[in-house]
Amino acid sequence: MKKTNIFIGIVIFAVLVTVPFWSVVFSPASGAAPEVSLDTPVINQLSGDDYKCVEDVEWMRAHHMDLLNDWKTEVVREGNRVYVAEDGTEYLASLQNTCFECHSNYEDFCLKCHTYSEVNPTCWECHVEPTVVGGAN
Amino acid sequence: MKNAGIALAFVLAILAVVYVGVELLNLDFFFGGVLPYIAIAVFIVGFIYRIYKWAQSPVPFRIPTTAGQQKSLDFIKQNKIENPSSKGGVFVRMALEVLCFRSLFRNSKAEVTDEGNITYQWEKWLWLFALCFHWGFFLTVFRHLRFFTDPVPFPVTLWEKIDGVFWVDLQALYLTGFLLLLGITGLFIRRIYLDKVRYISLVNDFFPLFLIMGIAITGLTMRYLTHADVTAIKEVAMGLSHFDFGQIMAAVTANDISVMFWFHLSLVCTLLIYFPASKLMHAGGVFMSPTRNMANNNRMVRHINPWNPEVEVHSYQEYEHEFHQKMKAVGLPLDWDYDEEGNQIPKK
After folding, report:
1. Residues of chain B positioned with their CB less than 8 A from the CB of A29
2. Of A46, B131, B239, B259, which residue is least crowded by CB atoms under 10 Å?
3. Partner-chain contact A120 B255, CB within 8 Å
4. Which residues of A touch B234 (CB under 8 A)?
C-alpha cells in the first residue's frame, strides 16, 4: 500500500477520534454545567423544614424522571393522585400543580440541564408546554 | 469453555477493581479524570504505531483475491467490482467490504453428508451479527457525542430523533443500543455454539466480547433502568474535552454519580487500552489488506519486485547480434538486419 495513502488514513483516524477535543475550540460555551435557578416566589417563601423537594435533592437530580413516570402511571392508569414521599409527606401527584408550583421558572430550571445534556423529555406530548419567551407561566 | 470463563473472570475483576476504587477508596477523580486520558492516549498512539509497523511490511506483488471475471478481451464482460482493474473499482470494492462486510456475506458452511457427499450451505449468521454489532456500536458512539459537545451539533440531535423513533412508556428507545447488544450476543453464541469455532477460540477472542457486552449492558441499564445524573456526567465529559481538571474534580465531588457510570466508563477505557494490542486492530488492518486494496492489473502493468537483485541477462537480440554472421551462413532466419559494420538495424 502506498505510504501516502497510509498517511492520509492515519490523519483521518486521528481527526475522527479526537473530535471531542478539537470541536470544543469552535464552541463558545465553556462546557461547565448550568446553574439551575431556585429563585422563584414560592421557593423563596419556604424556610426551615419546609425548604425541601418532594424527595431528597441528590436523588431528584438523577431520578426525577422516574418519579414523574411513576406519577404518570399512578394518575393516568390507577387514578391515584396521592403520592407519599419517603419522609411521609403527602403530595398531590401532578406535574403542573405540584412541581411547577415551586419550580415556576421552566426556562431557568428544567430547560437549563435538558438543553445542556440534550435531553428531550416527552412531558409536552400531553401537558401544555410552558411558554419559553417571556418567562414561565 | 475454559477460555470463555477466564475472559469473563477478567471482566468481572475489572468491575471489582472499579467498585473498590470508587465506592470504598473514593478514587472518582482517577476514574473520571486520569484513566480516560491514559486510555485515549494509549489508543491513539498504539493504533498509529501498529499501522506504522504494518506499513513497513513490503507488499511486492499484486495479490488481490478475486471473485469475478477479470478484465480481458473487449467482448468478455468484466466484473468491475469483484475483480477491479482500476482505482475506482478498488474503491467500490473496499467500501463494500468496510461498510457491508461483503466477504462475510460470502460465508458458506461445508459439510459431508452421511452418504459421503460434500454439501455447501448458506451461512449468513456471522455476517448478520457482525453487521448489527458494528453499525450498532458506531451509531451508539456517535450518539455519545452529545456528552462531549456543547451545544450538541445538529447531526447528533437529528440522529437521536431517528434512532429514538420508537417510544416505550413515553421514552425514546434507542434502537442502535439494542442492536449492538443483539449483535455482540449473537457473535458470542455463534462462537460457543459451533464446535469448530469454539475449538479455535482463545481467551483473547472471548475477552473483547465480554468487555463490549459489559459496556452495552451497563449503558442500557443506566439509560433505561437505574438512571444516572446525566448533567454531572456531562460535566465530567466536558471537563475531559476542555482538559479542565478543576471541572472534573468539582463534578465528581459535588455529585454522587452512580457506580454504574464508573463501570461503564472504566470498561470503555479498558477497551481503548486493549484495542491496539488485540485482534480488534482489524479496524485499521482491513484497509491494509493486500488481497482487498489492490487492483488486479497484473496483465496490463508490469510490477517489479523492488528488491530483486540485478540479474545479468543475455537477450535474444544480443545473442543474434553476436552470432548473426554464423547464423546467416547456415541459413537461419534473423530478426534484424545488419549494416556493413555489423550494427543491428530494424528490419525494413
Report:
1. 150-151
2. A46
3. no
4. 33, 116-117
- Of B40, B227, B242, Cβ closest to residue A31: B242
CA atoms of B322 and A85, how far apart (whole Å)? 110
User: A24 vs B234: CB contact, 8 Å cut-off?
Assistant: no
pLDDT at A135: 44
Domains, in order of start, for chain B:
2-288 (1.20.950.20), 316-345 (no CATH)
Could you tell me the pTM of the whole model? 0.86
- This complex has an ipTM of 0.87
Structure-derived torsion over alpha carbons of residues B312, B317, B319, B321, reported in degrees to the nearest 10: -130
pLDDT average, residue stretch A103-132: 86
Q: What is the pLDDT of residue A1?
A: 67
Answer yes or no: are the C-beta atoms of B248 and B32 closer than 8 Å.
Answer: yes
Q: pLDDT (tens digit, 9 = 90+) per residue, B160-171?
A: 999 999 998 888
- Mutation target to probe the A interface, by most A beta carbons within 10 A, among B42, B49, B150, B162 is B150
Nearest 10 degrees: Cα torsion B5, B6, B8, B11: 170
* B207/B282 Cα distance (integer angstroms): 16
Sketch the domain layout of chain A as residue ranges: 31-125
For chain B, say whether A125 makes contact (Cβ under 8 Å).
yes
The overall average pLDDT reported for chain B is 92
Q: Does A65 touch chain B (CB under 8 A)?
A: yes
State how beta strands B166-168 and B171-173 pair: antiparallel
